[in-house]
Records
---
Amino acid sequence: MSGPGSPVAAPARPRLDELDPATLQRARAHDPIAMRAFVVRYQRPVFALLSRMLGSGPHVEDLAQETFLRAFRALPAFDPDGAARASTWLLTIATRLALDSRRKKQLPQVDLDDVPNVASFHTPETERARKDLGRAIAAAAADLSDDMRAAFLLADVHGFTMGEIGAALSIPEATAKTRVFRARQHMRERLAGEREDGA
Amino acid sequence: MKPEDLQSWEPQEPSDGFAERVVATARKEQRGPARPTNLRRALAGAVMFTTMAAAAVAVVHVRSANARGDVTADARREVHVGSRAIAVLEPGAHLRWDGDTIEQRGGEVFWRVEPGARFTVHTAAADVTVKGTCFRVKVRGDEDDMTRRDAVSGLVGAVAGMAAFVGVYEGKVAVSHAGQSVDVVAGQSAQADGAGVHPTGDAASAERGFDKGAAEASGSDPLLAANANLADSVRDYRRKLETLADEKAKVEKKLAAAEAKLGDASAPKSDYLLTQDDWKELAKEGEVRMRVPCAGSKGDFTVSADNLNKDGLAPQDAPIVQAALQASHARTWAIIKPLCSQALGNADVERIGQQACVSVLTQLDEQTNNQAYEEAVRSVAEIEAGQRPGPGPSDSVMSTERAYLALANETKNIQADLTQSLGPDAARSFVYGDQGCWWNSSHGVGPRGGN
């Protein structure tokens, strides 16, 4: 656990390489190979965002598919050479879909700590500790409101700037900062000592 | 909680075949049955001119939202053309239309056309008539040549020096000039030029050939040369000669400054100039760094004289540098292309290129077995650090390991190539400098055992 006032988390990994503008241009022109490269490149962050927002289940794949279909419809308006990154643009679509679905109550309430089984090379002890920590994080995040959880995920998992979070959630940048700050504070409090105890 | 702890919160992974299902659904939607409220998007195409036209200006005027217009774009913009088409103009594109008569006079335009009667885009080189769905056209030559062709009647053949490339994504289009017409189906291409209209086979590879030709056209086309105004040329050469002495003095001054800079042992070190000790440090952290050339806007690895000058190289070094960059790309693509093609079901991956392929391989390997992928990254760093041997040709390793190894080695290979011709200082200055098109990439997975 970090000390009081320290950041709870920076992006877990550095921002990944974006798909190159030439391939995006070809996807815009409906080149099937480029479209496939687009989906393959971005499917994991889209699934990660949706499943952490909504819990795992078939609804995640449905919404992920809808995210990409909307993206393909809107690609002609996206500037591959512009300032906006494709990943930010796509995850913004996914975030809005997730929040809309939740608001319309189209999705069942699913436990966020329903962690999918993933093959692992860790020892049984470290694997158990890791899963326990993952469940604790998921349970802590489940207590956040949907908007706060979205802000937290976009900031600390997907590396969005506060300005990008504001644009994604249609809120002022200052409001985005407040939400991320409060979400981090909540996570710190809920997870105090978790790593020391569990690891 | 530490930043990396968030990775313990495992996300749901995409199921097998997700990408294929999404693309199939999207393509079905793109060409599927009409929606009750919307006309089907039956055709989407891109029409490009590569021109020597002057810088783009703002919109001249649009007399009507649909019926007629004359637009030159200074930034990407969308306009409705007639009642059936939407055109997305790239900067510099020039479009003029009046009813069903549409002239694309320059630049690049992406077209979406709804089904209906025959739809024709007139260019100075050829007419492109829609019979099906999705196509791309590139035309090279001077925009002014459009005025030398009766675009409305379509009776006159291609203007000398003009050439049009047509690549078809879906359905079928007809390319015609001077009474000749060729139907081009999905995946295929054709070219119209002074020799007539002729099929050019696979669209992706033929398009690259056309682009290369476009880059060379202005300086080498004998017809254009014959049409050049001799008096203007003589005057131009005289002016150039008069300024040559000044330019030479400036170049010598810059060269001296660059040489002084190169001789400075305290020159800043690139993040990608890695000794074996650097690689050992990266191996501890589970990180690989790669820097390889990219094709740049012209698609041919050229580096301008100005940019070479900034790295202390002379203009006459340009062919040497270009050849080294092309050879580098050929080496890495020979390894990555078959891996990528196999990963995408024997697809023609020339269309998406090396950078997208590496991204695809990374994502697929991460998705298939993330921990094995992380081991592959650490393994690459350890191999580069000399801590373990590289895999043999028949060893079973992840695609990313072979791809990353190829890329990670390449800066050293280019440096060695250029050192032979340019010397070690100039080679190092260019390979790790800021000029030219370079793809820098780093992948970090953390140390083995975590934390």
---
Amino acid sequence: MPDWTSLKWLGWISLYLVPVVFLPWALSRAWVHQHGSDLQVGPKRLFQRGELGLLGLVLASSVIWNLLQSQFTPHTIALGSVLMALSGIMAASVWVETYCRESGENSWRPARAWRDSRNLALLVFSMAAVMEILLDRFAKVAGQ
Amino acid sequence: MNAPAVARAKTHERIVVVRLADAAEAITVLSLAFGLLLVLFPVSFPKMIVNSWEHGQLMPVMMVLALLLDACLYARIAVMRSAKPGIVAAVCLGSLPLLVVGGLSLLLQGAVSHALSGDMPNLQLRVGEEILAHTYLGLISAVFLPFLVIRLLQQFKATNS
């Protein structure tokens, strides 16, 4: 029988998505409406400098915090933390690379920065989701 | 040789450049599939993993799975970029998944020994959850780390040349 209670992580992760993704998008829409601008604002344009990678790092940090609070063995905590940190850092590095390319003489390709940051942020998101399911399962076992 | 033919020849000679975002797509799907299996089959799926670990089949299966995934992913990137596979990347993809899974297998043995040495309730269930977590992290590491190493090697090569 499916264990739907494990899906409570979805609500927890959405707390990060609302202020980081939806709020800037909604604010920019409101600004366009207020100023009567014909600017086309979508997530792809709004986060074209790889800002989603920063969300990945924030998400990874919070999962590492939860892992450190758990009763898993130090081996599992270390492995999970290192892997989450690596994926979070690589996601954030997209924003750093884009910033350097834009500031320097290197060519800056917004489509590539958007695609890279989106894929890596989704990777961190999916890993965070599974880690939360595993933490939830372990908490139930430890609490019995 | 005319100009288009030269351009085509250059395209064929170019070695595939891997971006981590290409591998991230596949790892996301793998990760979500693992999570979905955990939600849909909360008892039978973990039990299957623990049973296969007890019979010594988990690590070989993970090695084969990681090797296949890495090879397919690299081939897909090569086709997408219309470039030929590089020898360094092939060596990385042939050896790193095995090394990662082998190393993590030792780490799992350490984690299980640590869990068993403690005087805690629900020891059997705790060990099962540890095995489940290591299986997930091992699979992700075996796909993610080789591509991360290839990406960093490419960066290093580009900086030096």
